[in-house]
Amino acid sequence: MSERQTPETWHAALHRLQRDGIPHVLATQVTSAGSTPREPGARMVITIDAIFDTLGGGTFEWQTISAARACLAEQRYGLSLEAFSLGGRSGQCCGGFVNILLETFPGATHHIALFGAGHVGQEIVKLGAPLPWQLHWYDSRSDAFAGEYHQQPRLHCYSLHAAEQSVAALPANTHALVLTHNHDEDYALIKALIERNDIASIGLIGSDSKWASFAGRLKRESYSVDKIARVRSPIGRIHATKLNNKTPYAIALTVVAELLWLTDTPSAQENRGLAPQALQTLMTDSSTTTS
Question: Which positions carry the signal peptide feature in this UniProt record (predicted)?
């Protein structure tokens, strides 16, 4: 992948990447001893194909970038500590020593596909704005999306022309919600979604009778029981209780709460901070440098 060195400062890049949910690493020089290119507090931000700001350049910086991108590629999120002797590992002649703290951020943690920009869809988008989700919003009506939504972070609006094409474009492990203004459109989307085995969850808005009708049609079209069972309908029915408040906002609240439960899975590698030995080494080096 091509390298992009940009004039954007590390703090501007950090704000933008956090806002847009793009995976990135913040590299901070936390200690120094002897002669070093920069002092503690120097920072740079690294993505898989771009770098922002500098820790001083040279082989030492290249190795920092390489270590950061290894964290991104291997999805090792959280904190890690890299130590560089500027004359040994780095191949530089400064003769100093630095510790670099790498903070690796996963960006948006989940993809949510929302089919339908009606009243409930609009409330779901508003409620989802502060959450670390990438929202993919579809509607077949040309005037469905108001201008204000195009400014919302991590939100992408698309025209829905063909259910199969739109569903095929979704990232793997997407959580899909179907709530368009048209039942035929809903049904076409459900058919396309259950054909993809890598969709994380499928939710359909509507009454019990609507789902009974859809399930009957799917059976008659020879869809298996397992495929049909993947659909959750109605959405937002937390713990199988029915909601008396039918306002769009109330329904959206239950839908977002349900999504939070569905997406709240512990990561394979839980990271609670630096290892005690690494932290002890860091604090020892820091006290030696400042004494």
Answer: none
